[in-house]
Each structure stands twice: as structure tokens, then as C-alpha cells.
Amino acid sequence: MLAIAREAARRAGVLLRDGRPADLGVKATKSSPIDVVTEMDIAAEKLITGYLAEHRPEDGILGEEGGSRTGTSGVRWVIDPLDGTVNYLYGLPTWAVSIAAERDGETLVGVVEAPMRGETFHAVRGGGAYLGEHRLACRGAAPMEQCLVSTGFNYVTTVRTHQAEVARQLIPRLRDIRRGGSAAVDLCDVAAGRLDGYYERGLNPWDLAAGDLIAREAGALTGGRPGERPAYDLTVAATPTLFEQLRGLLDELGAWHD
Ligand code: 2AM
Ligand code: CA
């Protein structure tokens, strides 16, 4: 399943990288570029679901662009063909293809392919996390005020306004914050020790399935609101020392609601 996920992600990454019109970014204020991105998004998902149908015909699929089907094997593939759509539109390098396979609610395999960074992350449950062939470990312990934490803001104005308020209260308590624009890449950057933590409200299963496994297999902890698993309300990933403190603080600040 790992080999299949890696090959599907690689092919979709090539399609998105090579198929992106060079002038997409400069035209980003017109509505037609959005259509181009949507077309690329759908084409990438079709490529992935077609590849899976060929190699894993019994499995189910949940894709962001609606490419869903129920399987009979108990395995379900959770796919984000293009995570970091706005970055892709503007020509920023932080976007990725995210593919995960799960069974009984547990993610078994995760692949995040970030073509413009030349990076492929992967993890198999219980087998560690890798960037290429290099085994990953999250950062070591640091006091919260020395931690670099990434987040994201929702497309909906009322939601992002409240998220800005949460960030305002968080910023003085951290080293700094980052806003990368791809949840999948942020989770992999926690795995790679490039961030101490990451949190976001409003993620869907396809945004986080692969990256969540990669972060955990690199020794990070992930969760949602206190006691819960990562969910739409809140997703938090961080080093073991930062994790409970960060999610406790986020809960206190009401990061999961308006
Ligand atoms: P996308 O690029 O596939 O839309 C941005 O903060 C991150 O959150 C991206 O990974 C983005 O995925 C994801 N996301 C999903 N739904 C979102 C929403 N409603 N608002 C903002 N970001 C969303
Ligand atoms: Ca996404």
C-alpha cells in the first residue's frame, strides 16, 4: 500500500507541477485562474482514484473533490489531491498531494508529496516517518516561549476574524507563529523538526490524515480538543513537551469556535 500511495502521489505531483500555467500567479485576481486550479485539482484526484481503482479495486475512497466510493476490503483511501490551493494559485512552493490509507479508523499509511520543495514524506503505522529515505524525529523539549508554531486561517471571514483573535493572544507567549498554507505540509514540518507545533480549526479528514500519521511516527503528539482526536473543531500537533500545554491553552482561548 505504501508503494501504491507513493507512486500515485508522485504522478499527481508531476501533473500539478507541469500542468500549472506559468502565468497563473499574475492573473490571480481574475476568476478564471480559480477555474484552472479547480480543474487541476479534479484532474489530480482522478489520476489518483484511477490508479487506486487499478491496483486496489476492493478499497473505498474519500477524496476532497468528491471522488468517493465504498469498498469491500475494509481499507479506505483518504485523498487531498492539492492541499495548499492558494499557494498553488499564487506560485508559492508550499502545496502538496496527500494520500492516506486507513482501516477501522486507524491510518496505516500516509504520503505527502510536495513537488516544489522536492520532498516526499511518508509513514507506515509503527514503522517511523521519513523524508525521502531519511528517518524523521520531531524537535526536542523547549519552553513554550521558545516554540515556533504554525497555524492556518479559514476561508470564511467570521471564522478567520476569531482565529486572528486567538493568534493575537498566542503570539506573545511563543517564539513566533508561521502560516504556511498547507495543513499537510505543516504536519510534515512538525515531523521534520522544522516547527515545534501546529494547530488549526476547520480541517477535513483529507487535509490531515497522512500528515497526522507522519507527525506521530516522528514522535510528535497529535489530537483535537483535550482528550479528543484531531477533528474539524481543532487539530493540534506538537512535540511531546509542548503538546498538552498548547492544546490546553488553545482550548482556553476558544480556538475551536467563534
Ligand atoms: P486546501 O488548500 O485543500 O483548501 C490552509 O489553512 C489549510 O487548511 C490548507 O491545508 C487548506 O486546504 C485547509 N482547509 C480546508 N478547508 C479549509 C477552509 N474552509 N478554510 C481554510 N482552510 C481550509
Ligand atoms: Ca486540503
Summarize the structure.
With 258 residues, this protein is an alpha+beta fold.
Q: If helices are DSSP runs of H or I spanning 4 or more residues, what is the number of helices?
A: 7
The biggest sheet, with number of strands, parallel, antiparallel or mixed sense and barrel status, is: 7 strands, mixed
Number of domains as seen in the coordinates? 2
Helicity level: 25-40%
The arrangement of helices and strands along the chain is HHEEHEEEEEEHEHEHEEH
Radius of gyration: 18 Å
* Mean pLDDT across residues: 96
Shape: globular
Which topology of the largest domain does CATH recognise?
A: Fructose-1,6-Bisphosphatase, Chain A, domain 1
Distance between the terminal alpha carbons, to the nearest Å? 39 Å
The amount of beta strand, in percent, is 15-25%
Strand order of the largest sheet: 1-2-3-4-5-6-7
- The count of DSSP E runs of length 2 or more, i.e. the number of strands, is 12
Alpha-beta classification: alpha+beta
The low-confidence parts are none
- CATH superfamily annotation of the largest domain: Fructose-1,6-Bisphosphatase, subunit A, domain 1
